[in-house]
Automatic annotation (TrEMBL):
The keyword DNA damage applies. Residues 237-253 have a biased composition (Acidic residues). Keywords: DNA damage, DNA recombination, DNA repair, DNA-binding. Residues 52-178 form the Ku domain. This is Non-homologous end joining protein Ku. Gene3D superfamilies: 2.40.290.10. Transmembrane segments: none annotated. PANTHER family: NON-HOMOLOGOUS END JOINING PROTEIN KU. It comes from Brevibacterium luteolum.
Amino acid sequence: MRAIWTGAITFGLVNVPVKAYSATENHDVSFHQVHDADGGRIRYERRCEVCGEKVEYKDIDKAYESGDDTVIVTDDDFEALPESDNDEIEVVQFVPTEQIDPIMLDRTYYLEPAAKSPKSYLLLRQALEDSDRTAVVTYSLRQKTRLGVLRVRGKVLVLQGMLWADEVRSVDFKGVKSKAKISSKEKELAGALVEQFASDFTPEEFEDDYQVELRKLIDAKLEAGDTLDTEATFGETPDEADEADGDDADVVDLMEALKSSLDRRRGGSKQKSGGSSSGKKAGGKKSDEKKSGGKKSSKKKSDSSKSA
């Protein structure tokens, strides 16, 4: 697997360097579009509607249309946004797991410890297991600020993206408000039907029959020689970009970071009782934490993290 993102989880003042990998993949058979007359590959060109010239991807900007006006946003504009270079997964809350609505969950990533010592990674994993809570996090991927959760799957920390609250549609279906009367016999029969299908979930028992049959069809055509020469009809395939490797990051002293994090959380009440003039609250802003010695991973995202 190829890492699509390199950064660090920030847990108080604890820094946990990690690499992220896509946890899922699509098993559907991929197809190209071809000309039915000769099997030639159909390709699409990016062509400017003003000058008519073919445009390379590197020369394309993005535009936002607002009525009669259009605003062009360049790569430099995106890079200037505050989250464009953020390589941290920041833990902002630990919440009861049952409060996470599955409808908000999105794509999943495996997180691999990227430091020379995995101790801080193991500590966070153990803390999540012992608390029976889920860590709510914010992070940046593909130049966008994202919401997510950290959880444990087996022995691996998993980052699961989440939708923002305003991205989940609200519905008002008339049928669900019906007051149709359900008899006790109907409820009894429905319950009996549920019991007949009741079992433990075993995902490996399920198979995509359509893809299996499609693969059999393709294999049969290959075996029968019902084929075309790929290079003659499609041309050469561009080489894939080289994989980018990330360097190891240093981990802050674990015990000291944990103690400092707890001290900051308790600091507000202690300072008040001791007559201190400091007005900072426990668990202050990230900028304050960095000034107090919290280390941030010096690694930068590889080019693959922007395009993955």
